[in-house]
Write the C-alpha coordinates for this entry.
Amino acid sequence: MALRFRCLVVLLVASLAAFSVSAQTPTPDRAAESRTAFARAQHLKRGINVSHWFSQNADDYSASHTDRETTPDDIAIIAKLGFDNVRLSIDATPLEQSFRAQEAIKAGAPGRFFGPTVDFIPRLDKAVDEILAQGMAVQIDLHPEEGYKRDMRTSGEAVDHVVMLWRRLAAHYADRDHERVFFEIMNEPEERDAYRWAGIQARVASAIRESAPDNTIIATGPNYSDIVDLLTQHPLADGNVIYNFHFYDPHEFTHQGATWGSPYWIYERQIPYPPTESTMAEKIAQIPDPADRFKLENYWLDHWDGHRIRLLIDEAAAWGKTNNVPLICNEFGVFRNEFAPPDRATDPTSRNAWIHDVRTALEADGIGWAMWDYHGGFGVAVVDRTTGKSVVDPLTVEALGLKQ
Protein backbone atom coordinates (compact mmCIF):
# COMPACT_ATOMS: atom_id res chain seq x y z
CA MET A 1 0.00 0.00 0.00
CA ALA A 2 2.82 2.41 0.94
CA LEU A 3 4.67 1.63 -2.29
CA ARG A 4 1.50 2.14 -4.31
CA PHE A 5 0.86 5.50 -2.59
CA ARG A 6 4.43 6.63 -3.30
CA CYS A 7 4.02 5.69 -6.97
CA LEU A 8 0.80 7.70 -7.20
CA VAL A 9 2.52 10.73 -5.63
CA VAL A 10 5.42 10.46 -8.10
CA LEU A 11 2.98 10.24 -11.03
CA LEU A 12 1.00 13.23 -9.75
CA VAL A 13 4.13 15.37 -9.33
CA ALA A 14 5.33 14.40 -12.81
CA SER A 15 1.94 15.22 -14.31
CA LEU A 16 1.84 18.62 -12.61
CA ALA A 17 5.36 19.39 -13.81
CA ALA A 18 4.46 18.42 -17.35
CA PHE A 19 1.31 20.58 -17.19
CA SER A 20 3.34 23.52 -15.88
CA VAL A 21 5.85 23.23 -18.72
CA SER A 22 3.13 22.86 -21.35
CA ALA A 23 1.26 25.89 -19.96
CA GLN A 24 4.35 28.08 -20.17
CA THR A 25 5.82 26.79 -23.45
CA PRO A 26 4.12 28.02 -26.62
CA THR A 27 2.92 25.34 -29.00
CA PRO A 28 4.81 25.14 -32.30
CA ASP A 29 1.80 26.72 -34.05
CA ARG A 30 1.61 29.63 -31.63
CA ALA A 31 5.36 30.22 -31.87
CA ALA A 32 5.06 30.37 -35.66
CA GLU A 33 2.06 32.68 -35.39
CA SER A 34 4.03 34.97 -33.10
CA ARG A 35 6.91 35.13 -35.58
CA THR A 36 4.40 36.12 -38.26
CA ALA A 37 3.00 38.90 -36.08
CA PHE A 38 6.48 40.29 -35.35
CA ALA A 39 7.43 40.15 -39.03
CA ARG A 40 4.24 41.91 -40.14
CA ALA A 41 4.61 44.55 -37.45
CA GLN A 42 7.49 45.83 -39.59
CA HIS A 43 4.83 47.12 -42.01
CA LEU A 44 3.44 49.31 -39.21
CA LYS A 45 6.43 51.44 -38.25
CA ARG A 46 5.24 54.91 -39.33
CA GLY A 47 1.52 55.42 -39.84
CA ILE A 48 -1.21 58.04 -40.03
CA ASN A 49 -4.92 57.97 -39.20
CA VAL A 50 -7.42 59.12 -41.82
CA SER A 51 -10.23 60.28 -39.56
CA HIS A 52 -13.74 61.47 -40.50
CA TRP A 53 -13.63 59.62 -43.81
CA PHE A 54 -15.60 56.45 -43.06
CA SER A 55 -16.12 57.17 -39.37
CA GLN A 56 -16.90 60.02 -36.94
CA ASN A 57 -19.29 61.63 -39.39
CA ALA A 58 -22.59 60.00 -38.50
CA ASP A 59 -24.68 62.71 -40.21
CA ASP A 60 -23.21 62.04 -43.65
CA TYR A 61 -21.64 58.90 -45.08
CA SER A 62 -22.77 59.67 -48.61
CA ALA A 63 -20.51 59.36 -51.64
CA SER A 64 -20.30 63.14 -51.86
CA HIS A 65 -18.73 63.20 -48.39
CA THR A 66 -16.30 60.27 -48.72
CA ASP A 67 -15.21 61.31 -52.24
CA ARG A 68 -14.03 64.71 -51.05
CA GLU A 69 -12.97 64.03 -47.43
CA THR A 70 -9.86 62.05 -48.38
CA THR A 71 -8.94 61.85 -52.05
CA PRO A 72 -6.51 59.72 -54.08
CA ASP A 73 -4.23 62.78 -54.09
CA ASP A 74 -4.25 62.72 -50.28
CA ILE A 75 -3.31 59.02 -50.24
CA ALA A 76 -0.47 59.77 -52.66
CA ILE A 77 0.76 62.61 -50.40
CA ILE A 78 0.70 60.28 -47.38
CA ALA A 79 2.81 57.70 -49.24
CA LYS A 80 5.23 60.35 -50.53
CA LEU A 81 5.83 61.67 -47.00
CA GLY A 82 7.15 58.25 -46.03
CA PHE A 83 4.26 56.79 -44.05
CA ASP A 84 4.19 53.02 -44.44
CA ASN A 85 0.64 52.41 -43.19
CA VAL A 86 -2.77 54.03 -42.87
CA ARG A 87 -5.24 53.39 -40.07
CA LEU A 88 -8.64 53.39 -41.78
CA SER A 89 -11.40 53.90 -39.22
CA ILE A 90 -14.87 52.55 -40.06
CA ASP A 91 -18.12 53.34 -38.28
CA ALA A 92 -19.95 50.13 -37.42
CA THR A 93 -23.47 51.40 -38.15
CA PRO A 94 -23.19 52.31 -41.87
CA LEU A 95 -20.98 49.27 -42.35
CA GLU A 96 -23.67 46.97 -40.98
CA GLN A 97 -26.36 48.77 -43.00
CA SER A 98 -24.34 48.41 -46.18
CA PHE A 99 -23.77 44.68 -45.67
CA ARG A 100 -27.53 44.22 -45.26
CA ALA A 101 -28.22 46.34 -48.34
CA GLN A 102 -25.74 44.41 -50.48
CA GLU A 103 -27.32 41.11 -49.43
CA ALA A 104 -30.83 42.41 -50.10
CA ILE A 105 -29.84 43.66 -53.54
CA LYS A 106 -28.36 40.27 -54.37
CA ALA A 107 -31.72 38.81 -53.36
CA GLY A 108 -33.47 41.14 -55.82
CA ALA A 109 -34.45 44.21 -53.75
CA PRO A 110 -34.02 47.62 -55.48
CA GLY A 111 -30.96 49.52 -54.29
CA ARG A 112 -32.83 52.81 -53.97
CA PHE A 113 -34.57 51.50 -50.84
CA PHE A 114 -31.37 51.57 -48.79
CA GLY A 115 -30.28 55.21 -48.77
CA PRO A 116 -26.80 56.73 -48.99
CA THR A 117 -25.03 53.81 -47.27
CA VAL A 118 -26.04 51.31 -49.95
CA ASP A 119 -22.63 51.64 -51.64
CA PHE A 120 -20.65 52.31 -48.44
CA ILE A 121 -18.77 49.01 -48.76
CA PRO A 122 -17.81 49.45 -52.45
CA ARG A 123 -16.48 52.92 -51.58
CA LEU A 124 -14.60 51.43 -48.64
CA ASP A 125 -13.12 48.79 -50.96
CA LYS A 126 -11.87 51.55 -53.23
CA ALA A 127 -10.20 53.31 -50.28
CA VAL A 128 -8.49 50.11 -49.11
CA ASP A 129 -7.26 49.35 -52.62
CA GLU A 130 -5.94 52.90 -53.10
CA ILE A 131 -3.88 52.60 -49.92
CA LEU A 132 -2.52 49.19 -50.94
CA ALA A 133 -1.76 50.44 -54.45
CA GLN A 134 0.48 53.12 -52.94
CA GLY A 135 2.54 50.38 -51.28
CA MET A 136 1.24 51.00 -47.76
CA ALA A 137 -0.34 48.66 -45.24
CA VAL A 138 -3.85 49.33 -43.94
CA GLN A 139 -5.25 48.89 -40.45
CA ILE A 140 -8.98 48.19 -40.83
CA ASP A 141 -10.22 49.67 -37.58
CA LEU A 142 -13.79 49.13 -36.36
CA HIS A 143 -14.53 52.60 -34.94
CA PRO A 144 -18.14 52.71 -33.63
CA GLU A 145 -19.92 55.74 -32.30
CA GLU A 146 -20.35 56.01 -28.52
CA GLY A 147 -23.95 54.74 -28.57
CA TYR A 148 -22.90 51.51 -30.26
CA LYS A 149 -20.27 50.92 -27.58
CA ARG A 150 -22.72 51.83 -24.82
CA ASP A 151 -25.01 49.04 -26.02
CA MET A 152 -22.09 46.61 -25.85
CA ARG A 153 -21.50 47.55 -22.22
CA THR A 154 -25.04 46.60 -21.25
CA SER A 155 -26.15 43.92 -23.69
CA GLY A 156 -24.84 40.51 -24.63
CA GLU A 157 -26.97 40.76 -27.77
CA ALA A 158 -25.01 43.85 -28.82
CA VAL A 159 -21.79 41.88 -28.40
CA ASP A 160 -23.25 39.18 -30.66
CA HIS A 161 -23.84 41.92 -33.26
CA VAL A 162 -20.18 42.90 -33.17
CA VAL A 163 -19.04 39.30 -33.48
CA MET A 164 -21.28 38.74 -36.51
CA LEU A 165 -20.23 42.04 -38.09
CA TRP A 166 -16.56 41.14 -37.77
CA ARG A 167 -17.18 37.69 -39.19
CA ARG A 168 -18.58 39.40 -42.31
CA LEU A 169 -15.95 42.13 -42.47
CA ALA A 170 -13.01 39.74 -42.08
CA ALA A 171 -14.42 37.44 -44.76
CA HIS A 172 -14.89 40.42 -47.07
CA TYR A 173 -11.22 41.41 -46.90
CA ALA A 174 -9.67 37.96 -46.41
CA ASP A 175 -8.67 37.84 -50.08
CA ARG A 176 -6.59 41.04 -49.88
CA ASP A 177 -2.83 41.02 -49.17
CA HIS A 178 -2.43 39.10 -45.89
CA GLU A 179 0.91 40.78 -45.23
CA ARG A 180 -0.49 44.31 -45.34
CA VAL A 181 -4.17 44.13 -44.29
CA PHE A 182 -4.65 44.16 -40.53
CA PHE A 183 -7.91 43.77 -38.60
CA GLU A 184 -8.23 45.98 -35.49
CA ILE A 185 -10.93 44.62 -33.19
CA MET A 186 -12.24 47.96 -31.92
CA ASN A 187 -11.16 51.51 -31.29
CA GLU A 188 -11.26 52.52 -27.62
CA PRO A 189 -14.03 50.11 -26.51
CA GLU A 190 -15.00 52.23 -23.47
CA GLU A 191 -15.68 49.05 -21.48
CA ARG A 192 -14.51 49.71 -17.92
CA ASP A 193 -14.55 46.08 -16.87
CA ALA A 194 -11.18 44.79 -18.08
CA TYR A 195 -12.19 41.15 -17.63
CA ARG A 196 -15.44 41.54 -19.54
CA TRP A 197 -13.57 43.25 -22.36
CA ALA A 198 -11.03 40.40 -22.41
CA GLY A 199 -13.89 37.96 -22.98
CA ILE A 200 -15.47 40.10 -25.71
CA GLN A 201 -12.12 40.55 -27.45
CA ALA A 202 -11.41 36.81 -27.40
CA ARG A 203 -14.81 36.11 -29.00
CA VAL A 204 -14.27 38.69 -31.73
CA ALA A 205 -10.73 37.48 -32.42
CA SER A 206 -12.03 33.93 -32.79
CA ALA A 207 -14.72 35.09 -35.24
CA ILE A 208 -12.14 37.00 -37.29
CA ARG A 209 -9.87 33.98 -37.38
CA GLU A 210 -12.71 31.75 -38.64
CA SER A 211 -13.23 34.07 -41.61
CA ALA A 212 -9.64 35.20 -42.21
CA PRO A 213 -7.18 32.53 -41.04
CA ASP A 214 -4.10 34.31 -42.40
CA ASN A 215 -4.49 38.01 -41.49
CA THR A 216 -2.89 39.59 -38.43
CA ILE A 217 -5.27 40.91 -35.76
CA ILE A 218 -4.74 44.09 -33.72
CA ALA A 219 -6.01 43.83 -30.13
CA THR A 220 -6.26 46.42 -27.38
CA GLY A 221 -7.04 47.07 -23.74
CA PRO A 222 -10.42 48.22 -22.39
CA ASN A 223 -11.60 51.78 -21.75
CA TYR A 224 -9.73 54.28 -23.94
CA SER A 225 -6.83 51.96 -24.82
CA ASP A 226 -4.34 53.80 -22.61
CA ILE A 227 -1.14 52.09 -21.49
CA VAL A 228 -2.68 51.25 -18.11
CA ASP A 229 -5.57 49.55 -19.96
CA LEU A 230 -3.16 47.44 -21.99
CA LEU A 231 -1.43 46.31 -18.80
CA THR A 232 -4.69 44.75 -17.54
CA GLN A 233 -4.76 42.25 -20.40
CA HIS A 234 -3.30 38.80 -20.98
CA PRO A 235 -2.38 37.88 -24.55
CA LEU A 236 -4.96 36.03 -26.61
CA ALA A 237 -4.50 32.33 -27.37
CA ASP A 238 -4.05 33.37 -31.01
CA GLY A 239 -0.38 34.20 -31.59
CA ASN A 240 -0.82 36.19 -34.83
CA VAL A 241 -1.78 39.36 -32.95
CA ILE A 242 -0.29 42.84 -32.49
CA TYR A 243 -1.32 44.82 -29.39
CA ASN A 244 -2.04 48.52 -29.51
CA PHE A 245 -2.32 51.43 -27.11
CA HIS A 246 -3.05 55.15 -27.43
CA PHE A 247 -1.03 57.97 -25.94
CA TYR A 248 -2.36 61.48 -25.30
CA ASP A 249 -0.86 62.21 -21.90
CA PRO A 250 -1.14 64.75 -20.45
CA HIS A 251 -4.57 65.72 -21.79
CA GLU A 252 -4.24 69.19 -20.27
CA PHE A 253 -1.68 69.83 -22.98
CA THR A 254 -2.75 67.59 -25.89
CA HIS A 255 -6.43 68.57 -25.74
CA GLN A 256 -6.13 72.28 -24.97
CA GLY A 257 -9.00 74.19 -26.53
CA ALA A 258 -11.04 71.03 -27.18
CA THR A 259 -14.83 71.25 -26.85
CA TRP A 260 -15.18 67.61 -25.73
CA GLY A 261 -13.82 65.87 -22.65
CA SER A 262 -13.14 67.98 -19.55
CA PRO A 263 -15.09 71.27 -19.79
CA TYR A 264 -12.15 73.42 -18.68
CA TRP A 265 -10.02 72.40 -21.68
CA ILE A 266 -11.87 74.98 -23.76
CA TYR A 267 -10.37 77.79 -21.64
CA GLU A 268 -6.81 76.65 -22.23
CA ARG A 269 -4.66 78.41 -24.78
CA GLN A 270 -0.96 78.50 -25.65
CA ILE A 271 -0.12 75.90 -22.98
CA PRO A 272 3.64 75.28 -23.23
CA TYR A 273 5.47 71.98 -23.41
CA PRO A 274 7.59 71.26 -21.46
CA PRO A 275 6.03 73.46 -18.79
CA THR A 276 7.90 75.53 -16.20
CA GLU A 277 6.66 77.55 -13.27
CA SER A 278 7.42 80.84 -15.01
CA THR A 279 5.62 79.89 -18.23
CA MET A 280 2.60 78.40 -16.47
CA ALA A 281 1.74 81.11 -13.94
CA GLU A 282 -0.20 83.18 -16.47
CA LYS A 283 -1.76 80.12 -18.15
CA ILE A 284 -3.24 78.76 -14.92
CA ALA A 285 -5.08 82.05 -14.42
CA GLN A 286 -7.05 81.35 -17.64
CA ILE A 287 -9.14 78.75 -15.84
CA PRO A 288 -12.11 80.19 -13.88
CA ASP A 289 -12.83 77.28 -11.53
CA PRO A 290 -10.32 76.71 -8.67
CA ALA A 291 -10.57 72.91 -8.84
CA ASP A 292 -9.77 72.98 -12.56
CA ARG A 293 -6.95 75.45 -11.97
CA PHE A 294 -5.53 72.93 -9.53
CA LYS A 295 -5.60 70.21 -12.23
CA LEU A 296 -3.80 72.43 -14.72
CA GLU A 297 -1.23 73.45 -12.10
CA ASN A 298 -0.40 69.78 -11.64
CA TYR A 299 0.53 69.60 -15.32
CA TRP A 300 3.78 71.46 -14.61
CA LEU A 301 4.19 70.13 -11.06
CA ASP A 302 4.29 66.62 -12.58
CA HIS A 303 7.32 67.58 -14.70
CA TRP A 304 6.01 66.55 -18.08
CA ASP A 305 8.92 66.26 -20.51
CA GLY A 306 10.54 63.79 -22.85
CA HIS A 307 12.08 61.79 -20.00
CA ARG A 308 8.72 61.24 -18.31
CA ILE A 309 7.09 60.26 -21.62
CA ARG A 310 9.87 57.75 -22.30
CA LEU A 311 9.45 56.14 -18.86
CA LEU A 312 5.71 55.68 -19.44
CA ILE A 313 6.16 54.16 -22.88
CA ASP A 314 8.87 51.91 -21.42
CA GLU A 315 6.09 50.35 -19.29
CA ALA A 316 4.17 49.32 -22.42
CA ALA A 317 7.37 48.01 -24.00
CA ALA A 318 8.11 45.93 -20.89
CA TRP A 319 4.63 44.38 -21.07
CA GLY A 320 5.21 43.49 -24.70
CA LYS A 321 8.60 41.97 -23.94
CA THR A 322 7.28 39.97 -20.99
CA ASN A 323 4.48 38.55 -23.13
CA ASN A 324 6.58 38.24 -26.31
CA VAL A 325 4.12 40.20 -28.43
CA PRO A 326 4.61 43.12 -30.87
CA LEU A 327 3.14 46.54 -30.07
CA ILE A 328 1.89 49.58 -31.93
CA CYS A 329 0.77 52.97 -30.63
CA ASN A 330 -1.82 53.74 -33.27
CA GLU A 331 -3.05 57.04 -31.85
CA PHE A 332 -1.10 59.99 -30.47
CA GLY A 333 -1.21 63.69 -31.23
CA VAL A 334 -1.97 67.24 -30.12
CA PHE A 335 -5.10 69.22 -30.98
CA ARG A 336 -4.20 72.14 -33.23
CA ASN A 337 -7.30 74.26 -32.61
CA GLU A 338 -6.39 75.84 -35.94
CA PHE A 339 -9.71 77.65 -36.38
CA ALA A 340 -9.16 79.64 -33.18
CA PRO A 341 -7.57 83.14 -33.24
CA PRO A 342 -3.75 82.96 -33.21
CA ASP A 343 -3.54 83.80 -29.51
CA ARG A 344 -5.78 80.83 -28.67
CA ALA A 345 -4.37 78.23 -31.05
CA THR A 346 -1.92 75.63 -29.75
CA ASP A 347 1.67 76.85 -29.82
CA PRO A 348 3.26 74.99 -32.78
CA THR A 349 6.72 74.78 -31.21
CA SER A 350 5.33 73.08 -28.09
CA ARG A 351 3.04 70.87 -30.14
CA ASN A 352 5.85 69.59 -32.33
CA ALA A 353 8.18 69.14 -29.34
CA TRP A 354 5.61 66.80 -27.73
CA ILE A 355 5.10 64.89 -31.00
CA HIS A 356 8.85 64.51 -31.38
CA ASP A 357 9.27 63.24 -27.81
CA VAL A 358 6.50 60.64 -28.15
CA ARG A 359 7.65 59.48 -31.56
CA THR A 360 11.29 59.08 -30.52
CA ALA A 361 10.31 57.26 -27.30
CA LEU A 362 8.23 54.78 -29.30
CA GLU A 363 11.00 54.20 -31.80
CA ALA A 364 13.59 53.77 -29.03
CA ASP A 365 11.45 50.94 -27.65
CA GLY A 366 10.90 49.37 -31.09
CA ILE A 367 7.18 50.22 -31.12
CA GLY A 368 5.44 51.13 -34.37
CA TRP A 369 3.17 54.17 -34.46
CA ALA A 370 0.31 55.87 -36.29
CA MET A 371 -0.25 59.56 -35.54
CA TRP A 372 -3.72 61.03 -35.12
CA ASP A 373 -4.39 62.36 -37.75
CA TYR A 374 -3.90 63.33 -41.41
CA HIS A 375 -5.83 66.58 -41.91
CA GLY A 376 -8.29 66.65 -39.03
CA GLY A 377 -8.02 68.70 -35.85
CA PHE A 378 -4.72 67.02 -34.89
CA GLY A 379 -3.36 66.93 -38.43
CA VAL A 380 0.02 66.57 -40.02
CA ALA A 381 -1.69 68.67 -42.71
CA VAL A 382 -4.41 71.32 -42.69
CA VAL A 383 -7.11 71.85 -45.28
CA ASP A 384 -6.85 75.10 -47.22
CA ARG A 385 -10.27 76.75 -46.83
CA THR A 386 -10.10 78.30 -50.30
CA THR A 387 -8.96 75.36 -52.42
CA GLY A 388 -10.09 72.46 -50.20
CA LYS A 389 -6.68 70.84 -50.69
CA SER A 390 -4.47 69.46 -47.92
CA VAL A 391 -1.40 71.54 -47.07
CA VAL A 392 1.31 69.62 -45.23
CA ASP A 393 2.89 71.24 -42.16
CA PRO A 394 6.69 70.84 -42.61
CA LEU A 395 7.39 71.28 -38.89
CA THR A 396 5.09 68.41 -37.96
CA VAL A 397 6.63 66.28 -40.70
CA GLU A 398 10.04 67.03 -39.18
CA ALA A 399 8.81 66.17 -35.68
CA LEU A 400 7.74 62.78 -37.05
CA GLY A 401 11.20 62.17 -38.47
CA LEU A 402 9.89 62.24 -42.06
CA LYS A 403 10.81 64.39 -45.07
CA GLN A 404 8.47 66.41 -47.26
